[in-house]
Amino acid sequence: MEEEIDLRQYLEVLRKRWLIIAAIPLIAAITSGAISFFILKPSYEASTTLIVGKKATEEGQAAAQMLDNNVLLANQQLAKTYATIAQSRTVEENVIKDLDLPLTAEDLDKLISVDQVKTTEILEIKVSNTDPKLAASIANTMAQEFSKAVIEIKKVDSVSIVDKAEFPNAPVKPNKILNILIAFVVGLMVAVGIAFLLEYLDNTVKTSNDVEKLLGVPVLGVIPNYKIGKQA
Fold first, then answer.
1. How far is CA 230 from CA 52, 224, 226, in A?
2. Could you write out the DSSP letters of every residue in 72-125?
3. Residues 146 and 85 sit within 8 Å (Cβ to Cβ)
4. Considering only CA atoms, which of 59, 3, 29 is closest in space to residue 176?
5. Residue 174: cis peptide before it, omega within 30 degrees of 0
6. Residue 96: what are its φ and ψ, rounded to 5°?
7. CA distance 52 to 60
8. Which residues contact 163 (CB under 8 A, 6 or more apart)?
């Protein structure tokens, strides 16, 4: 019974503060939508994949390499090292020079991520930019310059491009719908918190129920509050 009373009290608080609970999430969602649609610039992502490992010159050697677990494990470990080379200052500066980018190596580094795909021999180069064509161009140039750097450093041609980067059609950021939903939910949580905080700080007595709760005695009668109109 006590739990039912508490639940009714909670619902009563929400009913009394319904305007706050409705307004704050709505304002938060509208603000988030306006920022997502009109202020934040869309960001596009282009990616290219490469495979690392020693290249065989004959079909028999290639078949043997595919069956050799030791070579496979070595190539997987090699991919981790190559990921560092791919995102090195030397490669990035060469990309900037090739594309004549108005960026520093530090600026370009913030747009690029190089990751090993799980525990495979495959590396994935991702580039984010507000220009989809430029993102694809940087990704493809990164792959080319990375291959050249490996040949120069390791003295072996051990990188092959699996997939070239293509122009992305849709932006990856911002996720406008998700941003609006998150803003609405957070706004709703804040509004409910404010509603209960205001109720906690409100020590005024407004109804007969408030009197009963405060004094612990039943209300025997209520004096109506009305205004006497002026008589002619």
1. 96, 19, 13
2. HHHHHHHHHHHHHHHTSHHHHHHHHHHHT-S--HHHHHHHEEEEE-TTSSEEEE
3. yes
4. 29
5. yes
6. -60, -40
7. 19
8. 47, 48, 49
pLDDT digits (tens, 9 = 90+) for 116-157: 888 788 899 999 999 999 999 999 999 999 999 989 988 878
Whether 147 and 162 have beta carbons less than 8 Å apart is answered as no
User: How far apart (Å, rounded) are the C-alpha atoms in residues 94 and 47?
Assistant: 18
pTM over 0.70: no
Q: Are 87 and 146 in contact (CB under 8 A)?
A: no
Q: Which residues pair with 160 in a beta bridge?
A: 51
Q: What is the C-alpha separation between 143 and 226, in angstroms, rounded?
A: 83
What's the token pair of residue 89? 């200052």
In the structure, what pLDDT confidence band is assigned to residue 63 with cuts at 50, 70 and 90? very low
In angstroms, rounded to a whole number, what is the distance separating the alpha carbons of residues 153 and 159?
Answer: 12
Tokens 């006590």 sit on residue = 2
The answer to whether residues 45 and 126 touch, using CB atoms and an 8 Å cutoff, is yes
